[in-house]
Known about the structure:
- By secondary structure, chain A is an alpha/beta fold.
- Chain A has a single domain (about 50-200), classed as Glutaredoxin (3-Layer(aba) Sandwich).
- Chain A contains 5 helices and 10 strands, in the order ββββααβαβαβββαβ.
- Chain A is globular and about 40 Å long.
- The model of chain A is unreliable at about 1-20 (pLDDT under 50).
- Chain B is α+β, with helices and mostly antiparallel strands.
- Chain B has 4 domains: about 5-175, Immunoglobulin-like (Sandwich); about 180-270, Immunoglobulin-like (Sandwich); about 305-585, no CATH class; about 600-720, Glutaredoxin (3-Layer(aba) Sandwich), CATH 3.40.30.
- In chain B, α6 (about 330-340) packs antiparallel against α11, α7 crosses α11 (about 430-445) and α8 (about 390-410) crosses α15 (about 505-555).
- At the A-B interface, β1, α1, α2, β9 and α5 of A face α1, β8, β9, β11 and β12 of B.
- β1 (about 5-10) of chain A pairs antiparallel with β16 (about 225-230) of chain B.
Amino acid sequence: MHAAILTTALAAGLFTAFGAAAQAVVGQPAPAFSAVDTSGKTVSLADYKGKHVVLEWVNPGCPFVQKHYNSGNMPATQKAATAQGVAWLSVSSTAKDASDYRPSSDLAAWIRSKDGVPTATVMDNDGKIGRAYGARTTPHMYVIDPAGKLVYAGAIDSKPTANVADIKTATNYVNQTIGEVLAGKAVSQPNTRAYGCSIKYSDAG
Amino acid sequence: MSLLMRWLWPLLLAPAIAFGQGAVVKTDEVRAELVAHAPQGVSAGKSLALGLLIRHAPHWHTYWKNPGDSGLPTTLEWTLPAGVQAGPIEWPTPKRLPIGPLVNYGYDGTVLLPVTVTVPPDFGSAALDVRLKADWLVCKEVCIPQSGEFRLAVPAGSSTAANADAFAQARASLPPRASAATVQAKVDGQVLALQIDGLPADLRGKALDYFAADAGVIDHAGRVEQRWDGERLALRVPLSAQRSESPARLQAVLALPGESRGVEVGFAGPSWPPTAGVRSVAPQAALAAQPGAAPVTGVLNAPAASPIPLVMSLGFAFIGGLLLNLMPCVFPVLALKVVGFAKPGANRRQIAGQGLAYTVGVVASFVALAGLLLAMRAAGDQLGWGFQLQSPVFVAGLSILFALIGLNLLGVFEVGQLLPSGLASLRARHPVVDHGLTGVLAVAIASPCTAPFMGAALGAALTQPTPQALAVFAALGLGMAAPYLAASLSPGLGRWLPRPGRWMATFRTAMAFPMFATVVWLLWVLGQQVGIDGAAALLGLILAVAFAAWVFSATRSRSLGAAAFRVGAAAVVVAAAVGTWPVLQAQAGEPVATAATTQSEAAWQPWSPDALARVRAAGRPVFVDFTAAWCVTCQFNKRTTLGDAEVLAAFRARDVVLMRADWTRRDPAITEALRQLGRSGVPVYALYAPGDASPRLLSEILGVAEIRSALTGWPDRASTSPPAAAPPPPT
């Protein structure tokens, strides 16, 4: 027997075909998508060519999402962005069979009740958009430039906690990114570490 | 909403905080206990172990130091007697916790997070009083951030070993450092390629789980390829497509799948490919507003292209510079220049030299100004073009300068006598220097007048990298100097110059009046900034300076009396300056209303980002007038087009909210808003249609027809909705 034992092993089979899908990469074209929003209209990323677009993964059942909505931080970020001509798409990739799934009308009502002002809220029940973007958490934030290029992927801010008091002292990466791109500057932190609850993806996706 | 959610709802609204009076905190998801292991008691100079023992309810889990794709690590915050030190958590080997396509690293069942506590040599208490605040995120499908406060007294004199088993188990599952292991790391595309030598023999040939201890680096759910080659393990760990961290040192735990047995390796990180520096193209609004800019679709097809190509920016800048010559605030300087050209005895060669010097002066000052502006931009200062005239002191200085030039032209004093003789002869000997300085002066006055086209070019320049921005400013200067350069170089054009004659003295006197007109304008600007007291104080200062200039000019003798007059005149100037200074510093809270306030003014409300957002959120169209008192174009538009009854009626009919952003004084919010619109100067006219996210920018020389056509196609409010309430009162 040969002295050198050659073993090729795959890592434990915890991982399925999902991860094989290419994830969105900052600096590359953002994956195109088309889906129905909470008001039943079809929304495509292509509709917003020529504008900056923010994608926000949302799930009202997640305490990290609540942190940023109950404090008014996320609605304020949405207002600031949309007032500057940025389109804001909130995306729900929560599977229908997840315990904290919210149907369209519920989700829209919840966001309204928090004074959220996204341009549209997109229902991604099968998780296709979320997987294409590699969205892992709620919230998980992305910024796309007017040419459809992904320029930011990561967290809403720099303090990965569930503590509302940390918002004040955190750097809001979305505001920072929008400020930079609208000023024509390079994005100083194009990738940050998203934090929050796992997105409960549908198995079917 | 499922029953579970209904039940969990109160818990989800706020992080659950459990205050334990003792060592145990119980929630529905975990039972957490502060435990100690001090089999020999607590003695000075020795160590003991403390830890948080977490029992998870079935299917719930908490997280490792790198939680993986989501989650948060548990944190422990110790309060211990002076000198007693708690070390970091000695994390047991975690488990892979897949959730759909994601993977977390953490613990379920029972886990003990131990720390080593050192007791100082002078410790003499009967018991060690331990307080702990712990934060953990516990998740199943939903996540709940929880927090507990714990207290425990560990007796010093007796043995504490009730949890000996748990501590022993935790020690056993703490991955030991594989001190003999050496790791070579490099980045190969989207893969972290590792070659690991010297791993313990009992792991050899086995499939291992790779737990990256550093968050934000690898794709936790990605497949790790591994290959044993004898004692060497080669790993290919997929990097996260959205990698946010580039650690100089990496750590990882290699463990047998499903077992707590493993080792920790630490190694120098590879040389990471850069992740920063991503740029965005400009939004459509900014593009559409730039005259002649490439169609948006064209830009979209070339994602890397800057908003407007550099050549086009340079072209606009050149044209903008040409037009600057026609702006009213530049005219006095041009008049000065004409006086210079018309000097007797100047031959063509000399004039060409003067033209070149003037050009150099203009271009150099534009570039210098740009350099300053860029340096300030780099410093993060909220500045924009025209900012000089936002400073009352600068305005006052300019008024005095123009008053002096006017007086000089009137013959009240002669510059040659006023300047030190050395400098005067320098001027005489070096007319080239003189003309260069005239160019510098021309720029100082031209800069606030943002002529048409210049806005786009400047906006583009300020958003471009430094070399391009400097080039744009240089082109602007060239454009401004071009007519004079051409006139001085071309014999054809040169022949148009008037012949020298006695008319020149008359002309020189006449030229004093544009100077004084400029002083009047500057005084009006200053009045806007600091009120009528400031304007009056400045007039006093000008009077004092004029008096001093005349005294210095008129008293040429070296007599004591003449000297006394001079000292007196200087004292008058100093006194006036001292009296004026605080007035110029005084920040008038509100811009003083102009006398020209008409009824149409009442329709305008002050702009603020909040006010704009509020009105737009209500779905109403908005017209924003970005203006400043010192901006002549703005004032012209305001009194003509924006004061036009037809325009105001058209706005009213469409229920357009009229907002005015007054940039007369430096206002960071307005500077920022202009920058976001791709501009750096005023005027800017932004029209927000209902429902449109970005505004349409109208041209800087605003016409009635343009506004009418912009509103064409908008429904009258009468035809679409019930008569709306009166416009909201100015806020």
